[in-house]
Specification:
Layout (H helix, E strand, L loop, with lengths): L1 H10 L4 E5 L7 H4 L11 H7 L6 H10 L2 E3 L2 E7 L5 H5 L3 H12 L1 H5 L2 E7 L8 H6 L2 E6 L3 H18 L5 E6 L6 H8 L3 E5 L3 H9 L5 H6 L1 H17 L5 E5 L1
Parallel strand pairs: 1-3, 1-4, 4-8, 5-6, 5-8, 6-7
Antiparallel strand pairs: 2-3
Helix pairs in contact: 1-11, 1-13, 4-6
Amino acid sequence: MTTATWALALSWPGPLLVADCDAVGGDMVPGMLAGRVGIDHGLLSWSTAARHDLPVAGAAALLAEHGIQVPEQPQTTLVPGFATAMQGSSFTLDAWERLARALQRSRASLGRDALVDAGRLVSDRGCWPVLRAADQVLLTVRPSVRSVHAAQDAVRRLRRELGDLTTVTALVVGDGPYSAGEVAEALELPLVGVLPEDRAAATVLSDGGRMSVKSMRRSSLMRAATSLASKLAASAESSSDVAAVAG
């Protein structure tokens, strides 16, 4: 999920706010940006600053103040997530609800679309309010029996928590014995796109590996992500602007 989120974030055609909402510990900063940015700000500091009586517009504006500018994509701001699962468990349901409302106002208050790394959907706790607020939920899955089996459980959770699956689509990642269409059919979801197996580029996004910006832009992963990001951004123009990547 994190690699897919970074690929989309670095390919987004306009200003973007990215929130790392993995409740068991965020990987976006420790991965691609390890040692290059500070982590004094993030979801926890935002929650403290966006007190309960603060209007939604003000809470949304504060997201940018508690984020960091992505060096490779200056028009993108990342709000770092939790360093540990314990930190994530301290984020209350009320905090998640306030965050969901603030992300919905991202475009109105900040002039930015919002993209969320929601992490794995294995618990009843976590960022479910954010997923309910999202206009688009991309369920990442690999074309293998094991991954599809896990994704089917995630689909059941999504249906229960969201009420229906009208906002949910399948994002197939990598190669396997089944086609992307077969995977989407097994999950009974529309197919939103496919990201190819590209270990060199994925290592840069997930672990901070070295690759020139020029080579990165030319990689098969980033070419596919650019096409998908344009599609998602165009769809966001007619909605409130929040997309979430989960798995």
